[in-house]
Amino acid sequence: MNSFKRDNVLCHILLYSCFFLCAGFPVYAIDYDYHFTTKCLEEPLNPQYSGGIAKNPEINDGLNGWTSFGSSKIETRTSKQGNTFIVASHRTQPNHSFSQTIHVEKDTMYTISAWLQVSHGKADVVAMIRTPNGDIPTGWAIAKSGCWSMLKGGFNGNFSGPAELYFESKDISSVELWADSISIQPFTLLEWKAHQDQSIEKTRKSKVKLQVVDHQGQPISNATIMIKQTSSSFPIGNAMSYHILTNTGYQDWYNPRFKLTVFENEMKWWETEPLPNKDDYHLADAMLQYVQNRSILLRGHNIVWENRDMLPQWAKDLPRPLLATAIERRLNSLVPRYRDKVIHWDVDNENMHFSYLESQTGENTVYYYKKAYDMDKGALLFLNEWGTIENPNDIVASPAKYLAKIEEFRTLGYNGTLGIGLQGHFDTPTIPYIRSALDILATANLPIWITELDVSSRPLQADYLRDILGELYTHPGVQGIMFWSPWQPQGCFKMCLTDNDFNNLPTGDVVDDFMRRINHQGLISTTNHDGYVETSLYHGDYEVIIKHSAIKHQSFAHKINVAKGKDSSTLVMKLSA
């Protein structure tokens, strides 16, 4: 190991752990390393997983394992501190860099990390994998001159055979690419599932020790304990359309499942102000009353939208002063009306992909957040973007760019509440990329919500949805999931959960199964000789019914709350008869 690299003591996890049994035999897995840092360092950290299957990951053995990709010149250099790294110079195409051939196994998950630097300025750099089926982007970094930036990503092994890792940047004019501490770590599907199971136990559940005692405080042995979860601490919701106001079949399907919602269109600008200065909130108000009567929480979506196509027709060609006035009126009309009635606001929708309002008015998007925060300090204000976790090709809203946008907000003086909204409109998912993207975003220490989850219609749609849910729910950074499947008689946006008779489609079965699996219903156990029952419970509220012949009236009930503690110690509760 190169002694000049900084060692990441806390997160350099390479211990082998047994997580679960498969066909009677223990399955061992290398712990997944969730670590990422946004700091640009004088020297790179050691490679994750000691480089995994990458040959010569720390460039301590000259150029062994590395070749030139394209017509670039590659060489090794050594820093003043004695650290050796690889350099690609004389680049004339974006993909001219250094490369290494690896062997990919089908049905294997791969995570990639590297430390990057450029000779001057800064540049977007992507790690690519060349396969027989085409070139795959795996992860992005904003590389800078004078310090080392971390890249993290991943890809699915969907074939077996040789592949080539290389790096790409469109900034080619005399810009050299430097790299060090490069890691490629494979995980089997069983190992990947083991990481998810471990994360659930660590972040979504707590160990609970219940003791049943009589009125004198003496333990009651052989008491039957029945545990039923009445609510979950992890919010899961689904968008709804105005049809829920009149369609009883829709109501009967929706209401038992979801206690969190967002209106598909009814709060959007074109719906609430179809003509200039003529507000029409009748649908939004009626839907608000509907959800309030049923204790369903509501996300506010959205205040304004940077995409010109999503403006009211009358606002699309307004001259600059009139557009600015119209936006101001929109803010002053919508936010106070629903203040304290929504838990979130998607303030300026998709402002990384689009910038029509900003370009036309000259007003930075931060202004809308400051204004909304001043009017409704009780709601959490969100950025809301697509592509960040769905599409490794999306450089505009890459995880690194998302963090840069957050930094821009703070630099421009926005100090109010802020959440990371990830829409999650998937086609074919890249599960390792999703995990790495969430690792990166979690470093902002802001709430991460999946705000519009769906999978486009395609073979394996339901299977993809199941895989995506498994990854999102088990990541410690995610705090809530919203499905984007509001029912429409003519068909849904991308993904329906039911047919028009409100019978579940395969995707609806996936959602129901997912929600059953992350809740405890009907757990039954018996206290030991000291009156104890030990178990692991999902965070949330529970009703505990205790039955024993020595108990007056034979049984009694307790309500308890299980929440994540400050450490992993067991939560001990004494239940008195």
UniProtKB/TrEMBL annotation:
InterPro entries in alphabetical order: CenC_carb-bd, Galactose-bd-like_sf, GH, GH10, GH10_dom
Q: Where is the GH10 domain?
A: 221-514
Q: One Pfam family, short name please?
A: Glyco_hydro_10
Which PROSITE patterns is this protein grouped with? Answer: GH10_2, PROKAR_LIPOPROTEIN
> Which keywords are on file for this protein?
Carbohydrate metabolism, Hydrolase, Polysaccharide degradation, Repeat
Query: Superkingdom of the source?
Result: Eukaryota
**Gene3D superfamilies annotated for this entry?**
Galactose-binding domain-like, Glycosidases
Would the keyword Transcription be found if you checked this record's keyword annotation?
no
Please verify whether the record's keywords include rRNA processing: no
What family is it from?
Answer: Belongs to the glycosyl hydrolase 10 (cellulase F) family.
PANTHER family linked: ENDO-1,4-BETA-XYLANASE C-RELATED (PTHR31490:SF50), GLYCOSYL HYDROLASE (PTHR31490)
Write down what this protein is called: GH10 domain-containing protein
Q: Which organism is it from?
A: Solanum tuberosum (Potato)
